[in-house]
Design a protein that fits this description.
It is a single chain. The chain is of the alpha/beta class. Helices cover 35% and strands 14% of the residues. Strands 1-7-6-2-5-3-4 form a seven-stranded mixed β-sheet, sandwiched between helices. Helix 2 packs across helix 3 and helix 7 (143-150) packs across helix 9. The longest helix is centred in the last third of the chain and has 19 residues, at 198-216.
């Protein structure tokens, strides 16, 4: 068991996670497309658009259950890591790891993501950095490009999540039933950026943004 896999008793017996995933699949009439593209093991990055707190549960429900213990979800430390029930539940169900949206000087906001990749995990990352208010995709931040500078040729699994903005938009506490589709594209494993050149980070981030956007239009392709 890796350092980021939850050691909580509820996570070890796995029953709560299976029940939770089954319920949300039914509640949201989850449709998964492109599941043949999902890697069988890590390390890999799973990058997706972000409109709702329902995104991570529906992404996990779209993955094979055997992958759950070895996939972690990067989550805002100022929202999900303040103690209490939310932090415990997210750790048990999604192996959440903190990512600082406003990092302290001299502290790498992606340090837990870097360590998880080095330990062989798959990492769920939302490169927009925050949830969309209207469903449109913002440009991806350059941090994902920086990761690919540190991990050249790392497999990247692109995904587009459709419908979660209706399930649980910003400021809504309880989810409502609405059909959700998660569409995976082919793994991208040729991306390389220069660790010392931020322009290459941004170029890689733009390319990934365009791939995910194309998945949203049903036109996923990668050159």
């Amino acid at each position: 068991m890796g350092m980021y896999t939850s050691r909580h008793p509820a996570a070890r017996i796995k029953i709560p996670a299976h029940l939770f995933m089954s319920v949300i699949r039914l509640y949201c009439r989850l449709k998964v497309e492109g599941s043949e593209h999902i890697p069988e093991h890590g390390p890999f990055l799973l990058v997706a658009n972000h409109t709702s707190h329902a995104d991570t549960p529906l992404l996990y429900a779209s993955l094979p259950s055997k992958l759950w213990p070895n996939v972690v979800a990067a989550a805002a430390s100022d929202y999900f890591f303040t103690g209490g029930t939310m932090e415990k539940v997210s750790r048990v169900l999604f192996n959440t790891i903190p990512i600082a949206r406003k990092p302290k000087v001299g502290v790498d906001p992606l340090r837990h993501v870097v360590r998880a990749l080095r330990e062989g995990y798959g990492v769920v990352l939302y490169p927009e950095g925050t949830r969309s208010r209207d469903g449109s995709m913002a440009q991806f931040r350059s941090g994902v490009g920086r990761l690919l500078a540190d991990f050249p040729y790392l497999p990247v699994l692109p995904a587009y999540i459709e419908g979660t903005g209706r399930v649980m938009p910003k400021n809504r506490v309880l989810p409502r039933p609405y059909p959700v589709t998660v569409r995976f594209g082919p793994v991208i494993d040729h991306l390389v950026a220069d660790p010392g050149n931020k322009h290459t980070w941004r170029a890689v981030s733009r390319e990934l943004h365009d791939v995910v956007a194309a998945l949203g239009e049903g036109q996923a392709s990668i050159k």
